[in-house]
């Protein structure tokens, strides 16, 4: 028998940390912090682990990596793109192991399969075939036009990203709302290594000129350098986005500006949030204590969602396609997934210790 221990990530919007034990080997999927500032998993509850596998580089999945010493300084596995996004000082080069974006691999004695999750550049899911199968999705989305999604195989136990609860609105409708809202100019804050490049593509395809912050420009260049991580038919369009950016941009009111970070706590978004006259439209989760939450509460900004996690319909389709017998709904409160619980062909479970 194998087991999963939920260290963090179930019952609320909490940082990811899921411990798998199989054949005496202890493998930790993700080790995050946030999204509420300072919220971390209980590191002491984990104990020593043999390896850490990362799904992607967002803070709520990697933000506690610097506490790795308390876990015995295990080796860390991630895709090449993810490693490019993680500060070098967080993990020594000798402890960094590169995973493919999709394919079969081994971590210690454990055979694994991984695939692209469609959530962020370099983001992947993991599948352990033993004992009927376990799939850990990390964060995922099937709605991105730029980032591919590889369907995972069948698994008895599915740990899925339920960040949006019972939300049903598709991304295409949200894009149309944002396209209307930015007329006359707006700042669109986005996460580092997130939806920025796709947002630029989608708005430009609707005839809306955008100005990008330096971080988003770097992200587009990185995507073009790793073409296996994006849909091939969009490579030329992505190159054109960069080509049409001015060398010395002047960020002024009346322009549509895509800038990091998503909550205006850092980057160009933070700087512009301190200037008068800029309209802000947030689209990410905005936790208490962030500049975004402060602006929204004061009526100084709007919030229009942009899906980077699965809506209800995609969630149900994944559960059916994987023929899961048990589902762990991660990163959500139980009362926010009543429709999912009622319509899922497999029961949602909320225990902290699960055998499979």
From TrEMBL:
Domain Metallo-beta-lactamase, chain residue ranges per copy: 14-185
Gene3D superfamilies for this protein: Ribonuclease Z/Hydroxyacylglutathione hydrolase-like (3.60.15.10)
UniProt xrefs under InterPro entries: Metallo-B-lactamas, RibonucZ/Hydroxyglut_hydro
Pfam families: Lactamase_B (PF00753)
Name the UniProt record assigns to this protein: MBL fold metallo-hydrolase
Organism the protein comes from: Erwinia pyri
